[in-house]
């Protein structure tokens, strides 16, 4: 055998054909018998390949597809770990994370999640990729590196690791200055049931974006949107699970006495109160939670049972929440009579 004979890239057709993205790392090419010199020759000007990102090769001369760009960005981010990038699993193989410690985020991730208000993938000049903060990795070409201290668990979308909507939205907002665009993205996140408003605000708070006026304005609209959706679900729960009609949106007071607090629903005959937890995470959590706790303890000392529900539980476990309320209503007959209070419309 003549060891000086250049290796043919033809075996790579099995890896890049049959619908697979025609993009590989230099490390992968070398593992498949293509030396660096051969890769450099193939990537010369006018050659059949092209060096698309540092260490990442596009195995054809034309422009990349959106899928190829996404894979290339992930390969670039994972390549820098020095471990190489495993190929996607074939038939009969167990699926494994192909791109450890790297995931698509920002506008590209939102588009992959199905947002209609984000640009289509081909029109994005940069694709954000989220990596651990300590990684020594620079943005290059269309790959824009976003670092995070604690990475969320990625979601698999079209076979790619993608940041959850709330995190992807925060990373997108960090690069946006247009208040209208920010508001549209946040609104779609909630209206489209991609995530709860509180999750978005939590990510914005952790990213320290709530000092930007255009973000704060959008957050106010977002929280109002989230509360409205939660209230709609609450009305539906009472109706669909045949719960007694409560007094909606009331303030409680002792007769001739002090204000006790506002409630989303109140069953006066059973002395059961319901409160939606739509706190804004940007507020001082300890202070706000202390107010919730004081109100709850005060009402319970008066013999009023307080049921506390989050919008997420109402969305994902509505039947369970209906059972909690029904149980509280039924248990009222076993309790001592509650103090008389006055319920006024809010």
Shape, per Cα inertia axes: elongated
Q: Tell me, rounded to a whole number, the average pLDDT.
A: 85
Largest sheet: 5 strands, mixed
Instruction: Tell me the span between the first and last alpha carbons.
Output: 89 Å
Order of helices and strands: HEHHEEHEHEEEEHHHHEEEHEHHE
What's the helical proportion of residues?
25-40%
Give the percentage of residues in beta strands.
15-25%
Can you list the strand order of the major beta sheet? 12-11-10-9-13
Number of strands: 13
Alpha carbon gyration radius = 27 Å
Unreliable segments of 5+ consecutive residues = 1-10, 82-96
Give the oligomer, counting copies of the same chain as homo and different chains as hetero.
single chain
Protein name: DUF559 domain-containing protein
What does this entry look like structurally?
39% of the residues lie in helices and 18% in strands. It has helices at residues 13-16, 26-31, 36-42, 66-79, 106-112, 165-173, 179-191, 197-206, 213-240, 285-301, 311-316, 318-330, and strands spanning 23-25, 50-53, 56-58, 103-105, 127-132, 143-148, 155-157, 160-162, 247-253, 259-267, 272-276, 305-309, 342-345. It folds into two domains: 10-88 and 97-175, no CATH class; 242-345, Endonuclease, Chain A (3-Layer(aba) Sandwich), CATH 3.40.960. It has a five-stranded mixed sheet with strand order 12-11-10-9-13, with helices on both faces. It has 346 residues and is an alpha+beta fold. The model is unreliable at 1-10 and 82-96 (pLDDT under 50).
């Amino acid at each position: 055998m003549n060891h000086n004979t250049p290796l043919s890239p033809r075996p790579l057709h099995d890896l890049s054909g049959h619908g697979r993205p025609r993009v590989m790392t230099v490390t992968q090419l070398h593992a498949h018998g293509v030396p660096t010199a051969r890769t450099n020759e193939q990537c010369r000007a006018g050659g059949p390949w092209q060096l698309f990102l540092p260490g990442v090769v596009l195995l054809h001369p034309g422009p990349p597809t959106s899928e190829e760009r996404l894979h290339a960005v992930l390969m670039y981010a994972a390549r820098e770990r020095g471990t190489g990038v495993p190929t996607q699993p074939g038939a009969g193989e167990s699926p494994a994370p192909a791109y450890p410690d790297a995931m698509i985020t920002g506008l590209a991730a939102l588009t992959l999640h199905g947002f209609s208000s984000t640009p289509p993938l081909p029109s994005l000049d940069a694709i954000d990729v989220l990596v651990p903060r300590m990684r020594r990795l620079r943005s290059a070409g269309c790959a824009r590196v976003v670092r995070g201290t604690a990475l969320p668990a990625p979601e698999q979308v079209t076979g790619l690791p993608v940041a959850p909507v709330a995190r992807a939205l925060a990373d997108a907002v960090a690069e946006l200055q247009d208040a209208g665009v920010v508001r549209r993205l946040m609104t779609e996140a909630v209206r489209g049931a991609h995530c709860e408003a509180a999750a978005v605000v939590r990510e914005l708070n952790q990213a320290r974006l709530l000092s930007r006026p255009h973000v704060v304005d959008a957050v106010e609209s977002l929280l109002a949107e989230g509360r409205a959706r939660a209230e709609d679900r609450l009305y539906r729960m009472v109706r669909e699970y045949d719960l007694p009609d409560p007094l909606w949106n009331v303030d409680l007071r002792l007769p001739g006495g002090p204000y006790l607090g506002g409630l989303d629903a109140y069953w006066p005959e059973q002395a059961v109160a319901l409160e939606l937890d739509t706190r804004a995470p940007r507020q001082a959590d300890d202070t706000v939670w202390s107010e919730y706790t004081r109100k709850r303890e005060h009402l319970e000392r008066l013999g009023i049972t307080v049921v506390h529900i989050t919008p997420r539980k109402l969305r994902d476990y509505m039947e369970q929440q209906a059972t909690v309320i029904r149980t509280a209503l039924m248990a009222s007959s076993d309790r001592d009579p509650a103090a008389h209070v006055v319920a006024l419309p809010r």
